[in-house]
C-alpha cells in the first residue's frame, strides 16, 4: 500500500478503501461503523489497548492532487501534490496518519484504530462518535489515545480543554513521553482527541505526521520520517506500556 494512492482519493473514496482494508482483518478485530459513514472503529479482541486516531478528510477536497511527485528539497526526500501541473494541497493532513495506521494494522493486532470524518470542518465525525456513545461502550478497555495528525517531525501536541485541563494531565503519562529524545511537548489548537479526551477523561497526545504547510498549496511530506513513523508509534506504545492513563484535576493519578 502506497501513501501516494491515499493522497488522490476523496473522503468518500478513502472511507470505502479503509473499510475494505480493515474488513480483511476481521478475524483479529471488532469493526464498527454505520450507514452515516462518519467513522470506522477497529478494536482488538483484548482487554486493554491504546487507540490510534486519524481523519479521512482533507482541508479542501476540490484541490486534491491528481499527481504526486517525489522530489529532493533542502536535502530531504519529499512528496508534493499537483493538480493539472500546478502545485496543490497534498493531503498529508491527514492521509499520513491514515497510512500509518493501516500499515500498523497489517502486523499489530493489539491496537485500536479510529478513523473519523470531517475533522477539518468542525470535528463532525468525532462528535457523532461521542454523542452516540460509540467510544463510551469500550471506555474501560482504552489505555490512552494517540492521534497521528500534527505537522512537522518533532511535536507531541496537547490541547487545553474547556475546564482548563490538558489532554495529557497525568504525571506518569507526561514523564514517559518526555523520554522520547526526538520529540517535545507543545500546545496544539484543536483536533479530534481534544474532544475525545475531555469526554472520556482518558489521556491523549497528537504526534507529528511528517507534513508541512498544511492547508496550503505548498504542502509537502518528509518521506523518510513518514516511512519510519509506524516503527516510531510502536516504540511509543512499548514505552507507555499496558496501563490506563486517566486525566485528573491535579495530574497525579497514575491509574
Low-confidence stretches: none
> Can you tell me the CATH topology?
Aminopeptidase
> Main sheet?
8 strands, mixed
- CATH superfamily grouping: Zn peptidases
Q: Kindly report the spatial arrangement of strands forming the biggest sheet.
A: 1-2-7-3-8-11-9-10
Beta-strand content: 25-35%
How many beta-strand segments? 13
How is this structure best described in words?
This protein has 255 residues and is an alpha/beta fold. It has one domain: Zn peptidases (Aminopeptidase), CATH 3.40.630. The protein is 29% helix and 26% strand. It has seven helices and 13 strands. It has helices at 3-7, 11-23, 92-105, 124-131, 171-177, 192-200, 223-240; strands spanning 29-32, 39-44, 49-55, 67-73, 76-83, 86-88, 112-116, 142-150, 155-158, 184-187, 204-208, 211-212, 220-222. Strands 1-2-7-3-8-11-9-10 form an eight-stranded mixed beta sheet, with helices on both faces. The longest helix is centred in the last third of the chain and has 18 residues, at 223-240. It is globular and about 50 Å long.
Give the helix/strand layout.
Blueprint: H1 3-7, H2 11-23, E1 29-32, E2 39-44, E3 49-55, E4 67-73, E5 76-83, E6 86-88, H3 92-105, E7 112-116, H4 124-131, E8 142-150, E9 155-158, H5 171-177, E10 184-187, H6 192-200, E11 204-208, E12 211-212, E13 220-222, H7 223-240
Parallel strand pairs: 3-7, 3-8, 8-11, 9-10
Antiparallel strand pairs: 1-2, 2-7, 4-5, 5-6, 5-13, 9-11, 12-13
